[in-house]
């Protein structure tokens, strides 16, 4: 009888470990779909938006300024802000958060 009781307790411990590992795997998969995957999707969307910018597009910068792109280099753009045509600032392409196409596509 004691042998059966100890055998049942040992089996319960093994099942408990398998159950715990299952929960850890489930939480890992859940965290992947809640955090990593959407962030990767958003980064891909931002990269494609930056690749498609053209001279004349209206942009919103990460600082919250609206402007028009007047020149594009490798990793920088020159943006003209406001109605003053002398306010031109070079900035990194990664500082652009939104693009609005102004030309006919």
Write the layout of secondary structure elements.
Layout: H1 2-51, E1 58-61, E2 66-72, E3 76-81, E4 88-92, E5 96-100
Antiparallel strand pairs: 1-2, 1-5, 2-3, 3-4
Report on this structure.
The protein is an alpha+beta fold and 105 residues long. It has two domains: 1-51; 54-100, SH3 type barrels (Roll), CATH 2.30.30. It is built from one helix and five strands. It has a five-stranded antiparallel sheet with strand order 4-3-2-1-5, with helices on one face. The model is unreliable at 3-8 (pLDDT under 50).
Strand content: 25-35%
Which term fits the overall shape? rod-shaped
Measured as a percent range, the helix fraction is 40-55%
Number of helices: 1
Please summarize the sheet with the most strands: 5 strands, antiparallel
Give structural attributes.
single chain, five-stranded antiparallel beta sheet, 2 domains, alpha+beta, SH3 type barrels, rod-shaped
In short, what is this structure?
With 105 residues, the protein is of the alpha+beta class.
């Amino acid at each position: 009888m004691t042998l059966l009781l100890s055998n049942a307790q040992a089996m319960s411990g093994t099942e408990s470990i398998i159950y715990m590992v299952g929960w850890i795997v489930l939480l890992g998969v859940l965290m992947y779909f809640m955090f990593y995957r959407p962030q990767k999707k958003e980064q891909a969307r931002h990269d494609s938006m930056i690749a498609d910018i053209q001279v004349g597009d209206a942009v919103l910068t990460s600082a919250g300024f609206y402007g028009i792109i007047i020149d594009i280099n490798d990793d920088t753009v020159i943006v003209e802000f406001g109605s003053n045509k002398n306010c031109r600032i070079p900035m990194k392409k990664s500082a652009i958060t939104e693009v609005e196409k102004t030309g006919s596509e």
